[in-house]
Amino acid sequence: MQQNGSPGSHGPDGSDGCTGERQAGLSFSPLPAATTRARRFVQERRTLPLPRVMVVFSAAGDTDKPADAMSSSDSAEDDFRKPAPPAANLNLGKALRSSLNTSQEFPEVIPLNVGGTYFTTRLSTLRRYEDTMLAAMFSGRHYIPRDAEGRYFIDRDGAYFGDILNFLREGELPHRERVRAVHREAQYYAIGPLLDSLEDTQPLTGEKVRQAFLDLLPYYKDNLERIVEIAKLRAMQRKARFAKLKICVYKEEMPITPYERPLFNSLRFERSDSETKLFEHHCEVDVSFGPWEAVADVYDLLHCIVSDLSDRGITADQQCIGVCDKHLINHYYCKRPIYEFKITWW
Hints:
Blueprint: H1 17-27, H2 32-43, H3 73-81, H4 87-100, E1 109-114, E2 117-122, H5 123-126, H6 133-137, E3 152-154, H7 161-170, H8 179-189, H9 192-199, H10 204-214, H11 220-238, E4 242-249, H12 273-279, E5 287-289, H13 298-311, E6 315-323, E7 327-329, E8 332-333, E9 337-344
Parallel strand pairs: 1-3, 4-5
Antiparallel strand pairs: 1-2, 4-9, 6-9, 7-8
Helix pairs in contact: 8-9
């Protein structure tokens, strides 16, 4: 009997065993474990099962790397799951980001169209103060439309924009009659230094002092609106050119009579809560102002009422027509002054 593996031995299918080994060696990688298993199957006269062949597709950049035909299925699936890098998309994203980050360029001399009024100034003038709307508009971060002539357009009344530019150029303040209007424009453009300078200039300084007094009367604005509404309704009902109202204006917290003045050094004296309620009442008038604690007196408040109505285009005349004679208790009477306001509409 011939030994297994000799030149004369044959496999079960009649083929030469050595030839089969050589063919296996040509078809598969000569791994030691695979060779040992092949010899064991040859000795046992069994057919050698064909190993599984896995074809792995790699990216173009990995063609030079040696691929193992016996790679596991997990690693192969991982290779299939990895998409090729979208080089074109990455380049497109970089181009978009670079275009978005590009700042708008401005010339050194800026032509402006502010609500139909034309101005010309330097770019540095508009950027004089960083925390302003103009500096933000011409920082390059925002889009500014242009008119047909190429001027940068700002949709704002240009009547007082020249005063804004004069302050940005040389710190020049407007004339007194323009202070209020320029102050409104400075608020719109958020120019803090100009606002501070204007508020220390007449008439805004006087307005701050006046407002400190009016803050003592939290109902002042509501009463002012009530005067306007009553006068308008009354004039329309009577088909008249004007309307008259009775308004009570008093400063003292407690009502007094002429008999009390010689008895007290001041107009203030203490009363118990029960006595205070006896003096509480409402005068028979349309609107009532008071009381308040300040040096400013009744005539100062009357001036405020007439001035504020005049600012709204309403002509108001006032005169004292007497006092409230309502009896309170014992010999105490109200004695609050009553004023007649005449509101003229045309």
